[in-house]
Write a structure and sequence with these properties.
Helix 3 packs across helix 5 and helix 6 packs across helix 7. The longest helix is centred in the last third of the chain and has 21 residues. The protein contains 9 helices and 6 strands. The strands form 3 sheets. The chain has a two-stranded antiparallel ribbon. Strands 3-4 form a two-stranded antiparallel sheet. Strands 5-6 form a two-stranded antiparallel sheet. The chain is 63% helix and 12% strand.
Length: 173
């Protein structure tokens, strides 16, 4: 199986000869799709969300089931997967720290983080913290310091931008 993008070609049979993808290989593949930033941290979170049985490897079945969910699943199924991505420790709740970790990972993935310690990095951190605070306040409906799956679903389903972006796959594919 071969995938092409602007960054080059990826031969999955060559990258994953044993039919499963381990995290290091997943990170290498992810880096080829996102060459302009540091994709390792975000790839780690995505890998954990794809590795449904927590085996440390993504089987072809897990890959297909997850991609099917993301591309053809209901809005609820897609949101449940997104919740799993942000619930970094898998305890069934998203903390502000977990949300911040994923937001920072996205910024690094997109190459939006300045070199550590620089004045620009401090500004980046302040902007990221503001973004995290705003999103966390919106999702933590009962303001108890954690976002449950129920709060996540309710908040996201009320947000037209989120539901439209999740439905985008329905019309594009």
């Amino acid at each position: 199986m071969i995938y092409k993008n602007r960054a080059g070609t990826i031969n999955v049979n060559q990258e994953c000869p044993d039919g499963v993808v381990h995290e290091d290989s997943f990170k290498d593949i992810y880096a080829k799709f996102f060459p302009h930033g540091n994709s390792a941290l975000y790839a780690h979170y995505v890998f954990k969300a794809f590795d449904v049985n927590c085996s440390g490897a993504i089987s072809f079945r897990e890959l297909l089931v997850t991609l099917s969910t993301l591309l053809r699943g209901s809005v609820y199924e897609r949101l449940r997967w997104a919740f799993r991505l942000y619930d970094v420790d898998g305890d069934g709740a998203i903390t502000r720290q977990e949300l911040a970790e994923v937001v920072v990972a996205v910024h690094e993935l997109l190459g939006r983080r300045a070199p550590p310690g620089s004045p620009a990095a401090r500004l980046d951190d302040a902007k990221a913290n503001e973004q995290v605070d705003r999103v966390f306040r919106k999702l933590d409906l009962n303001q108890d310091g954690v976002i449950t799956i129920e709060e996540f679903l309710e908040s996201c389903l009320k947000d037209d931008l989120i539901t439209r972006s999740l439905q985008m796959f329905d019309t594009v594919l």
